[in-house]
Amino acid sequence: MRRGFLLDGKAKPKGAAPPPAARLKPTPLEVDTNAKASQATSVPTPLKAMDRGSDREYSVMPSGVIENAGRPDGYITGKFTIHEDTPGVDVPDAEFMFTSMPPGAPDAVSCIMTGWLKRHLLSQPGFPKPMDIPEKPAYRIDNIPGKGKGMIATRKIKVGDVVSTERPLKVDPAAIPIPLDFPAHFSDMQMHQAFLYEKGVITEKIVKRMQPERQAAYMSLANTHLHDGSSPIMGITRTNAFGLENMCEKDGAANDRASWYSGVWDHQSRINHSCSPNVVRTWDTASFSQQMRASRDIEEGEEITVTYTNLTWTYERRKGDLKPYEVDCDCKSCSQVDHTRSDKRRTSFANPPPLRPPMGPVPSGTAPDAWIAPALKMIRLMEAEGLECIPQYPKVLHQIVNAYAFMADERALIYARKLYQAKRVRMEESSSNGFYEKLCELDTLKQTLGMAWGLMRLAARGPPGMVMPMVFCG
């Protein structure tokens, strides 16, 4: 027999610790994954990528039309427990539980999470903090030709402004450690089909715990996994889930998918994909909600879009990655007959080169800022591709601000203001104690950067061949 775990072999949460003796023993809910809850099946869920530029590839799960799809016979499911959330009872760190977050909220989210994660969330001061909801609605959900439902701007939205803040309908782990024993003759597809079935049974239990109106909202979402072995409920999750990369398990890392959680939303899961999107999504654990902010100005009546894939990949690679979502992107970049130029640009954005300032006097006939030109060009090309949303955009802006400050050149202010907006888009300004906002006025820019302002003048006044170890990497 071959041994596996639902979703992968690394799925078991880290940092497991036995409960202290003083705690009450939880009353477990036995998850009978052999029960015939559904004739169809479900899988390790591919998640729409967060806007972080992650290049990690995940297991390819069944999609499209799969012959003989459905739960295969012959494998054995080990015992697995998901605890009920019982008042006064602590679930051990590494064991899972059904619960609602935030507790008692009218829009509480139906969840499966570990005992550790629930305690961690509730221990945060002020949890849950108020959600940042626009005073005037910024969008409507409407039919979009060729795309089904989508999000349309109902007013002009400026870069950095909040478009939507919403709590999910459900949140659950991307990896659940249900032990499965497979016969030696099982193919990869048969194992995938078994995974699909077992995850589908659990997903159905989460959905059935929702309030009726939230359950109805979930069931009304699109499903592009009708013929690959996914149950209707699991197909909806596979179509609409976004990964929550910055809400991880104990000792988990943001790039470790085994420690991720994912969510499905009523409105935000209806937002369509573009390879030149105009919003960035950020999961805010403190309010247990996801926020979308405009990465560039959005006009009234314009469709609001996000990315489901890595935007620094080539056209063909993005197209393949989007196939399970039945997406045929019609953005300016994807609509071109020849994608060579766009592909070259986008792949170059993945790893912006560092800027290395000249040390000593600038050679005659050379512009003082010639060494900054590659970063200036990259920012122009990113904006031409509509990629203000990618994480490399603020990194290159940071390079430029530092470089001009190094030269005591007031053009630093122009790019500092762009950098501030790019940080606002990603909700990073609020955690920086106003650092980036201070860069938006010349006096505070000079004060904040301190000795870095005009440092190049020292090199210019130094002896020939003077070397200052300065590299700007963003």
From TrEMBL:
Residues 351-361 have a biased composition (Pro residues). SUPFAM superfamilies: SET domain. InterPro entries: SET_dom, SET_dom_sf, SET_domain_protein. Residues 35-44 have a biased composition (Polar residues). Residues 135-309 form the SET domain. Pfam families: SET. Residues 1-55, 342-362 are annotated as: Disordered. This is SET domain-containing protein.
